[in-house]
Amino acid sequence: MRRMILGIVAVVIGLALIVTLISLTVQDTSPPTVAKLLSRMSLADKIGQMTQAARDYLQPGDITKYRLGSVLSGGGSVPASNTVAGWRDMISDFQKEAAATPLKIPILYGADAVHGHNNLHNATIFPHNIGLGAARDADLVYRVERATSEELKATGIPWTFAPCVAVVQDLRWGRTYEGFSKDPALVSQLAAAAVRGFQGDNLGDTGVMVSVKHFAADGGTQGGKDQGDAVITPEQLNTLFLPPYAAVMSLHPGSVMASFSSINGLKMHANKALLTDWLKVKEGFDGFIVSDWAAVKQLPGTSADQIAAAVNAGIDMVMVPDTFASFIQDLTDDVKSGKVPQSRIDDAVSRILSVKIRLGLFKKPIPDSPMNLDAHKILAQEAVEKSFTLLKNDQGVLPLKAGQTILVIGPKADDVGSQCGGWTQTWQGSRGDITAGETILAGLKRRFGADHVLFRPDGTLGSDPVKADVTIFVEGESPYAEGRGDSETLLPDYNDLQIFAAWKESAMADKPLITLVISGRPLVMNGIIARSQAVAALWLPGSEAGHEAEVLAGDVKATGKLPQPWPSNADQTKTVWPLGYGLSD
Predict the structure, then answer these.
(1) Which residues contact 526 (CB under 8 A, 6 or more apart)?
(2) Cβ(160)–Cβ(208) below 8 Å
(3) Would you say residue 292 lies in a domain?
(4) Looking at the 3D structure of the chain, how many domains does it have?
(5) Tens of pLDDT along 320-329?
(6) β pairing state of 534-539 and 389-393
């Protein structure tokens, strides 16, 4: 009898173990919820999720050791093999480290894809936002960002630090070209199109997550100083700088990036009234706020003070590219000392986890997508043509006539790097054949025939008996990004001014001059404008700039309109052409 009872007990225990194992298996494979994950997380798990490190500063095992929630590539930060396969292999290794953490929460990988997947070699490089602002075509912006999201997902990246929705008020700012326009209504319209393009209708299945930036008033700093102070009234804040963010809230952007800049002396990374009270509470933002590159270090006080101020103000994920270990320790100390309440940590982590679930990262840590580069190239050509902004056309010099011989001057006419600008392959960009593309010169030769196009990059003809009907002068700015592009003069490159001077002394000076401007903003170039029969702004057209030739030939009508007024002096108190101006040839 005793043996029978023991046998029955053993069977019951065995059945209970089986049921427990089955229930654990079901629990482990069921879709995660924020509440379920949060209940199982230690403080170390939570703070790790709030930490974003740059790939350049990681050592093997760091993601597992520190339980990092996110990794990023800044401008030019690429794997050893800058190919689709190289990117996927790198991110796969990172996700394996994340899977080795106690809760196996995948990392969120982000990159600056601001005009195409601009870190990837030979990706499609679209016009920068100022050019898309000139095109004034929301559907075009939507399709450009859809294409960009496909190229990002093909490389395993689910998060872009875009779109920039700065409402730029001073052209001297080095990030002017990252904003669509000076007009907040146009910026709001194109911002919404960009978010829809990137994220799609169902984030995770159809797109990549955005980071709408830089919140707020980054385009309103005094003198256009990068990371400077916007001295503005509440009315200006509400009517100029906040509308683009309000315009995208119904689209549930996954993240918003705080600005380096200040408003009336208060750094945005410590501005609780805007980060929490306006964005999260009033506007109902349900994603998370990410800081900019090491921006928390610009706040006053010790490192622990800086971190506490930012997190308490509403920053959820902190971009600490090279100081992630000390950040984790400092934030841990802040929580234990009571400087940062546990409720603020839980709110931040809940927002981050919610986005990761929406993105589908728990099911597929590395997204994928087919990448149709041929279709994207055609789309980039369309964007180039629609952003072409014709500002002057005396004597009907445009469109160019069949059979004309064209003299092209200025080295930027045959330079892929110049036409792409900053944030291309590297942070600052550079001149030269840095990625695949068709230059303006190549496009002219393709469209008009190589025999009809002569190229003298330095503009000096000497004794060379050049016989041409018209000169095309390609001038403007060399590549730059962020504060390195801040300008007090808004002048074209000095070398371009020298080329113009040489052309004026040449035998071609009595022929019509067509000036094409490659730049991140309108420039002060009154003498060149006066001497030219035709002037067109090409902005920073990207890898398919050769299709400017189709507009010059009249195959495609010029339709671009100025997204910024064109100034006649550096302080922009006088204009040559107003906002919204543009001719049709």
Answers:
(1) 568, 576
(2) yes
(3) yes
(4) 2
(5) 999 999 999 9
(6) antiparallel
Instruction: Of 543, 420, 392, 534, give the one whose Cα is nearest residue 470.
Output: 534
Q: Are residues 76 and 104 in the same domain?
A: yes
Show Cβ contacts of residue 35 under 8 Å, excluding neighbours closer than 6 positions: none
In angstroms, what CA-CA distances link 240 with 183, 227, 368? 8, 18, 38
Phi and psi at 378, nearest 5°, equal -65, -40
Terminal CA-CA length for the chain? 104
Domain limits for position 504: 374-577
| 35-77 per-position pLDDT tens digit | 999 999 999 999 999 999 999 999 999 999 999 999 999 999 9
Contact between 446 and 546 (Cβ < 8 Å): yes
Torsion angles phi and psi, residue 51, rounded to 5: -105, 130
Domain boundary (358, 389, 424) is at 358
Mark whether 349 and 380 lie in a shared domain.
no
Give one DSSP letter per residue of 463-528, joined into a string.
Answer: T-----SEEEEEEE-----GGGG--SS-PPPHHHHHHHHHHHTSGGGGS-EEEEEE-SS----HHH
What does the pLDDT average to over 373-384?
98
Residues 161 and 92 grouped into a single domain: yes
Q: Is there a single domain that holds both residue 477 and residue 436?
A: yes
Which of the 8 DSSP states describes residue 191? Answer: H
Candidates 151, 218, 475, 482; catalytic one: 482
Phi, psi of 231 (to 5 degrees): -90, 100
The answer to whether 317 touches 347, Cβ cutoff 8 Å, is no
Residues 6+ apart with CB under 8 A from 484: 174, 428
Domain contains 89: yes
Please determine, for residue 30, whether its predicted confidence score (pLDDT) is greater than 70.
no
Q: How far, CA to CA in Å, does 351 sit from each of 46, 71, 355?
A: 11, 17, 6
Distance CA 311, CA 327 (A): 12
For the domain that residue 310 is a member of, what is the CATH number? Answer: 3.20.20.300
Residues in the chain: 585
**Rounded to two decimals, what is the model's pTM?**
0.94
Q: From 197, 214, 202, select the one nearest 261 (Cα to Cα).
A: 214
Q: Active-site residue among 112, 218, 226, 292?
A: 292
456 contacts: CB under 8 Å, gap ≥ 6: 407, 408, 409, 464, 466
State yes or no: is 316 an active-site residue: no
Cβ-based neighbours of 458, under 8 Å, separated by 6 or more: 409, 411, 499, 502
151 catalytic, yes or no?
no
